[in-house]
Amino acid sequence: MKLAAVLWVVFISQFSFALDREAFTFTKYDLHVQIEPDQQRLSARGTIVLRNDSKTPQKNAALQLSSSLTWRSIQGDGKPLQFVSQNYTSDVDHTGELSEAIVTLPIEVGSGNSVELTIGYEGTIALDSTRLTRIGMAKESAVHTDWDQISRRSSAVRGAGNVVWYPVAMDAANLSEEGSLFQILGRWKVRESTAVMRITLRYSPTNEGKPPDLICDADDNRMFEAAGVQIVSAECDFSPLGFQAPSFVMADYAVLDSQQLEVFYREEHKERAEKFVQAAAAVAPFVTDWLGASRRKALVAELFDPGAAPFESGLMLLTPLGDTDPKLLQIAMVHELTHAAFSSDRPWIFEGLAHFMQATYREQQQNREAALEFLGLHSAAVMDAEKIHASKSNEPAPTDQSLVATANEEFYRSKAAYVWWMLRDMLGDEAMKKALSAYRVDQDKDPSYTQHLMEAQSKRDLQWFFDDWVYYDRGLPDFHVESAFARKASQDNFLVTVTVENLGPAGAEVPVKVQFEGGEMTQRVEVRGKAKATVRVGTPKAPKQIVVNDGSVPESDLSNNTFKVAAAAQ
Ligand SMILES: [Zn+2]
Q: Residue 282 in contact with residue 196, Cβ under 8 Å?
């Protein structure tokens, strides 16, 4: 009886612990990864540091890799640690499954404390789109989305979210549940954003002639060829990791090196690579005018699958080199050159500004309307993201979708693009350019840093704007014209008084357009959230119709923005 009780206790303590997969943040990676393209293999060894960010001490840690990789060893304090390997279904990897090691740590790790582990793992990374085909996507399209693989001809592997080729730990993500993957991955990215990650990639060239290029998306990416040793290696330093998905490509590339751009391409696509270089050269003066001279080069590497979906991380763009229209290429290059010219560790600034610059370039190419149309490509994403978010937030207003904290691309790309555009409309080009040129990545310690730069140049109070759009996610505005009264001010002039009401919670400065026979006049008005504001507009003829918002402010409802003016009183 007594023995049974003891056994029972042992049994419980061994197997019924509640594993908290997200207890640990991985603060440091130092990995050496050997790639064998002929075998589609990689093998890795190195150290990782895990910090217990949960409130309770942890005796176990979960370490996850792609299911096509296998754990070989896990050590702590120089001694092998016990671990149980299991498959764990999750869509953060292209195979839809992870190799999870549940490690028994040498000692219980207290809240806030760290443990260093020495690890080894290996396996293959082959083309695999299981996570997409099992939710019904046709294989032919799925492989153009999940194109990652190591292979003799060309290798391209993206990080967690596509291929878990370095250890992570998160709860299961499920692509058939709306928002699940982005939520799980987003939470991981936020936790990992300050991690220090150093990865040395290497391979031993087997053939005669020029060995294949090996490139990663780290800022400081160098390749060494040790003479006689027959090893090619790339030092990839992601410190801090930010929201990057550590990725690498390896293929027999030719290289075009221009002032703005390095293009790694297949020999037969020389002309297409040259078009990229020409497009970058054409947009360089525009980017320099806004952001100053670039100190780094953008990097483009060709994906061999002509149908592959392009992917960008940091300064690297992975894309098939198609026969693209030069005008479209220029817009794409504005994005890449913006990254090269302007660094920020804040995704809403780094990515948002790059999308904003593309819209601004569209304006220069054509006009404001074309720019707003381009920006409009982001509007559905913003509206959907706000809707999903609003439907899920029964709790008090969450701050995790604020631009300063979000890991959601719809927010830090699409919504941020609009925020930069609205700021530019409010401040004007000159003040905006001055504020941007004063930005220093190493001084951006506080979220309000950017606000203060903008305020210093514009002499305007922007606290309310940053509160509504950047520091908190207050949703979107919803403008409508509450009333408009026109009167004849003089012989040839009318004065129309327009009251705009904002039914939404976020404020904005919005253009109000008064249309009359043969023309229109536009004036801007600042309308705070759940508030009204009045603007007076002079017109040479009787006003007929008023339209609030030209599309430059994202809105939850655009169907109520037009107002017919009653016949003007004489
Ligand atoms: Zn980008």
A: no
DSSP code for 38:
G
330: CA distance to ligand 1 center in Å? 14
Burial 431-443 (b: 16+ CB within 10 A, else e): bbbebbeebeeee
Q: Show Cβ contacts of residue 172 under 8 Å, excluding neighbours closer than 6 positions.
A: 88, 89, 90, 91, 184
d(CA 500, CA 548): 8
| CA-wise closest residue to 375 among 228, 245, 550, 504 | 550
Please tell me the pTM assigned to this model: 0.89
Q: What is the pLDDT of residues 390-411, one digit of tens each?
A: 665 444 444 578 999 888 888 9
Instruction: Compute, in angstroms, the gap from residue 413 CA to the centroid of ligand 1.
Output: 8
Three-class DSSP category at 222? strand
Q: Dump pLDDT digits (tens) for 281-300.
A: 999 999 999 999 888 899 99
What distance in Å separates the CA atoms of residue 166 and residue 181, rounded to the nearest whole number?
Answer: 18
How far is the C-alpha of 74 from the C-alpha of 80, rounded, in Å? 6
CA 299 to ligand 1 center in whole angstroms: 12
Both structure tokens of 381: 């994403």
Q: How far is the CA of 546 from the centre of ligand 1 (A)?
A: 37
The SS3 assignment for 502 reads strand
